[in-house]
């Protein structure tokens, strides 16, 4: 156990104001005393010569609880203090994983902040690297060649090739490097590196438009089918953003139902004016999903559900849409032989899946998680269509009645 300053030999130090009642002694002259008894520590102190160096963890004061910081951050990376040689005290560090919500107690030090994990039973604050310090050392690692350039990611698996075994999207949507015309869109600030994002609790009010729900998926997820199934179950509450296309209208189709049918000139003009969140070409026809199509659904007080390529996420992360991002990935067995009880992602003869396909599905999920995981609110692992549909339906229902952490810029007025 750590030694409390309530112990006799520490009381004299309290008078100096350097330590306080409740502080914990961790080391004496570099020697750990965590498991030592008070008499053992007293003996260690008596044998010390010259200056004595103590490592002490400060206690949480009652007045500090009353004036707790209201700064909350979403961690966008994993942190293990015991592996961080730069920390002034590894034992005092606070470990966390990407996605954890941290309550930052103090930012007085430019290098090390003190924070607590929200929902953690341990009320003691720990040390975490500050945003500036973490960004600087990531930049140094990239300069030294030990960290990949975040602006030059590997070509993701979901962009490779054409349709094979029903795993890939029917057409590839072009990347959109520009922001929308209003200048909105979140890229976590000007830094190349994502470290923390300040957040706040948000719950949709009755007079507000429903939040946008965005689905992204790795190979084999078949998110369009999942989306259509959930919407078909309750079309009065959920709807899709009707896409635009330049292909001719078929006899049974209606304008604004299956598609918005436009000329190539009009489509090109809309694309030039940055009206699409993403667009692409398939069989010499253009297809795209527009911002206005999303707004049209929300104006009817319906929850709009869209499935997009991950590149579109940053553009959709605005205070207007407050998107809730769900990453859908199939549960991939170790080999094709263990998939006998599952339905092939492609279906039928054309949908037979090889071990190579399964490996591509795994790699696709890994790459999306690495490049866009910090933008994801929920991961849905798809066992089968029925269970995935039920899980998605539950998520949509909770969005309407529960509060969630969102970027603080979305709730500031």
Automatic annotation (TrEMBL):
Signal peptide span: 1-16
Gene3D superfamilies, sorted: 2.30.42.10, P-loop containing nucleotide triphosphate hydrolases, SH3 Domains
Keywords noted in UniProt: SH3 domain, Signal
Annotated ranges, domain Guanylate kinase-like: 210-397
Region (Disordered): 169-204, 335-354
SH3 domain sequence ranges: 68-138
Domain of life assignment: Eukaryota
PANTHER family: MEMBRANE-ASSOCIATED GUANYLATE KINASE MAGUK (PTHR23122)
Family: Belongs to the MAGUK family.
Name of the protein: MAGUK p55 subfamily member 3-like isoform X3
Organism: Notothenia coriiceps (black rockcod)
Lineage of producing organism: Eukaryota, Metazoa, Chordata, Craniata, Vertebrata
């Amino acid at each position: 156990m750590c030694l409390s300053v309530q112990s006799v030999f520490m009381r004299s130090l309290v008078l100096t104001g350097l330590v306080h009642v409740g502080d914990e002694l961790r080391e004496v002259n570099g020697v750990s005393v965590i498991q030592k008894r008070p008499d053992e520590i007293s003996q260690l102190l008596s044998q010390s010569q010259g200056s004595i160096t103590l490592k002490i963890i400060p206690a949480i004061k009652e007045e500090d609880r009353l004036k707790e910081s209201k700064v909350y951050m979403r961690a966008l990376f994993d942190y293990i203090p015991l592996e961080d040689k730069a920390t002034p005290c590894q034992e005092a560090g606070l470990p966390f994983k990407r996605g954890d919500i941290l309550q930052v107690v103090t930012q007085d030090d430019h290098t090390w902040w003190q924070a607590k994990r929200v929902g953690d039973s341990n009320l003691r604050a720990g040390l975490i690297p500050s945003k500036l310090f973490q960004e600087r050392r990531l930049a140094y690692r990239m300069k030294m060649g030990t960290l990949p350039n975040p602006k030059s990611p590997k070509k993701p698996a979901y962009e490779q090739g054409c349709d094979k075994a029903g795993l890939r999207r029917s057409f590839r949507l072009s990347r959109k490097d520009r922001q929308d015309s209003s200048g909105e869109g979140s890229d976590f600030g000007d830094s190349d590196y994502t470290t923390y994002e300040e957040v706040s609790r948000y719950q949709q009010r009755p007079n507000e438009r429903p939040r946008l729900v965005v689905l992204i998926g790795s190979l084999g997820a078949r998110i369009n089918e999942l989306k259509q199934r959930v919407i078909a179950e309750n079309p009065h509450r959920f709807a899709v953003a009707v896409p635009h296309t330049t292909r001719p209208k078929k006899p049974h189709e209606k304008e604004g139902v299956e598609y918005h049918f436009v000329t190539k000139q009009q489509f090109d003009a809309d694309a030039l004016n940055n009206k699409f969140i993403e667009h692409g070409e398939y069989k010499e026809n253009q297809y795209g999903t527009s911002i206005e199509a999303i707004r049209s659904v929300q104006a009817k007080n319906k929850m709009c559900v869209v499935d997009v390529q991950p590149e579109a996420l940053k553009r959709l992360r605005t205070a207007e849409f407050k998107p809730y991002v769900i990453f859908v990935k199939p549960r991939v067995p170790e080999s094709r032989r263990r998939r006998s009880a599952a339905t092939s992602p492609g279906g039928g003869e054309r949908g037979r899946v090889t071990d190579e396909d399964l490996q591509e599905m795994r790699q696709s999920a890994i790459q999306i998680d690495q490049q866009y995981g910090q933008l994801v609110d929920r991961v849905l692992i798809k066992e089968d269509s029925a269970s995935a549909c039920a899980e998605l339906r539950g998520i949509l229902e909770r969005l309407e009645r529960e509060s969630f952490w969102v970027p603080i810029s979305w709730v500031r007025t």
